[in-house]
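User: Structure with copper (II) ion, tokens only please.
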Amino acid sequence: MTHDSSINTDGELNNSSNESEQNWRRYFSFSTDHKVIGVQYMAMTFMFFLIGGLLAMIIRAELLTPEANVVDRPLYNGLFTMHGTIMIFLWIIPFNAGLANYLVPLMIGARDMAFPLLNAIAFWILPPAGLLLLSSFLLPNGTAQSGWWSYPPISLQVPPGYINGEFIWIVSLILIGISSIMGAINFLTTIFWMRAPGMTFFRMPVFVWSVMSAQLLQLINLPALTGALILLLFDLSLGTQFFKPLENGDPVIYQHLFWFYSHPAVYIMALPAFGIFAEVLPAFARNPLFGYRSVALATLGIALVSIFVWVHHMFTSATPNWMRMTFMVTSMLVAVPTGVKAFAWTATIWRSKLHLETPMLFAMGGATMFIFGGITGVMLAATPFDIHVNNTYFVVGHFHYVVFNTITMAIFAAIYFWFPKITGRMYSEGWGKLHFWLTFIPANITFFSMHPLGLQGMLRRISSYDPQYQGWNIIASLGAFLLGASTLPFIANIVGSWLYGPRAVNNPWHATGLEWITSSPPPRDNFEEIPIVKRPPYDYGDPKYSVLENSNNRD
Amino acid sequence: MQRRTIHIDESPIRLEKWRQYLPNWLKRFLPSGGGNAEDHHGKGIFGFVVFLLSESIVFLSFILTYVALRLTHTDWLPPGVKGPDLSTFVMINTVILLSSSFVIQPAENALRRNQLNKFRFLWLTTIAMGTYFLVGQGIEWSQLDFGLTTGLVGSTFYVLTGFHGLHVLTGVILQVTMLVRSFIPGNYNKGHFGASVTTLFWHFVDIVWVFLFSLLYLWQA
Ligand code: HEM
Ligand SMILES: [Cu+2]
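Assistant:
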């Protein structure tokens, strides 16, 4: 009866003598424990999320009125540049790395990552790199101003040879890139080599598949950006001429290298979010993930296709027509594996009894919003349409539906879902739901408004605009301020619950992943015994799992 | 000791099955379905090869930039400037560097067979060859009639060879470290990880040079 004796860890109360829990100081120390590093990543990136959000609030304040009256133009340029850079390179991407750091070894039944020291080093590169980036606000000429993609020749129009915002921007991005490549090496080796006995590829949770696919992209595509940035740095400070059009160089080459990374970067950000949906939706629908294998392979498929679509960002960069056609087609191909995923999510919760706890609300909200962002994405992949709305707020609206309404929502789902595991405490459901509605509604107000603005022709990256656009801008700004306020109940909930929340059981959601069979929080080496895996993931069909009983006696 | 077992079911596709059809060397590289956590050597080599993969993409981004610029410019050389040319000096340098791969590999094999002295001798030879290449490149740089900012030819030439030279230098430093370590008693045992990794890195640096050499010297306008 292996079957029975195995799972009764479910209801068992957490052993409060767990030494790892009391010792909060370790979160501020140089540790090689993947769980500590994971939490360090997540906490640090959240700080950057707040900073990036603050910058967005200033941008939205500026856009309340048609005139440029809140900040001057160079500062406005600096604000959207830093906002975009921080949100992408210091919030979503490293947050995903932190979450994966925490979860992957637990999910595959390993005691740690493959190279714990490398792991710690990769993390500790980030705080100095982030601070360096922020420090450029103090420079006489301010931060970099040419947007998060830093296209030459605009990005080269700064006094040469001096330490300027652009120089600092490039150096910090190279550092962040090095950190990510270290992470990719570690994740791939961990997933290939550290799986517990019996944990075959097709028994890995989809989250692990997502991390594997996303890290494969980091490994293959990120070095191209690093290469481009090195050349840009040389152009900027050593007088080389790679990207200088007036001196025979070619700025379009930079665009190719940049988007060769930055398009897949969208999936580096999005795939882990899809992985989160694949963990949360089955757990709260008490259903096995529909079409597990297709979903797993679709994950890898999305990653592979996304390598071949980057030119859709360059439809207006003197790109020849045959290239436009080719890349329009490949871009639309991504919709196929993505559709498989969306279908699987729907089928998983179809006609099941949903348990609408906070993680589930965020997961369902995020998955739904992705459908919307995906549709506008396919629209943009159609070359004629893209040429029409290129560099308007339609694009800004589209990618915020993806990066905020989908990915950031998924991140919140993950935080709530694994909060009991990470802290050994339960969060407050009431505050969680408040946070959800305060996020979901304003996010839609804010980012939906950007679509009509774009269709009417309002350009992005401008601090003053034609008065005809003011209506939608006011709506967008008010939504954004509400959205900013929504972080307050979140922080209150997380901090308060971590300190005073009721103790969590090992498996409050009766979920099936390996991470739930160990204590909350897990001991230093994750498992008392390395588990032997003999079943596929998402085994919610088993009647043992299909009732949500003994659910931690909350509310 | 009781091991935690979870449910009973067989998942039909397992990596082990694929492995039966793979050649031997791939089998050593690819892990089976778990339980490999203790194979530190294999794990480390895997991680290092993955790292080299990312390195090759950085090189590739430079190389493709070079190729793209070359193909779109008829006026590649500024007036009066002579591009890098294929002198006997460069040839000798190249031959020395490439043949060092055939010295370092026997060195590593010797270490695997625990022949420490043979290892040290061949290893030292590799260091000498690598150093020769670096010095040669320095001399060549000092004699060229264009500089880093002399048009695209200068930008591309120095960045490509410089980045590669940096890798050669790293390789030599790794080699020296491994040589010193081989004199610390008890530090070196059969098939030392550091030596294997250095060998792989050295092969990588050599292969990259084949490409750079062909593009920068053999491909003349
Ligand atoms: C708190 C919610 C957010 C608000 C209110 C917000 C608002 C804005 C606004 C108004 C802009 C300026 C558009 C322009 O002038 O071109 C912008 C740009 C941008 N945002 Fe956000 N944003 C938010 C969250 C995020 C998140 C989570 C990401 C994650 C990736 C993100 C990524 C970007 C990027 C990449 C840009 C483009 C910057 C550029 O043009 O260089 N934003 N955002
Ligand atoms: Cu794209």
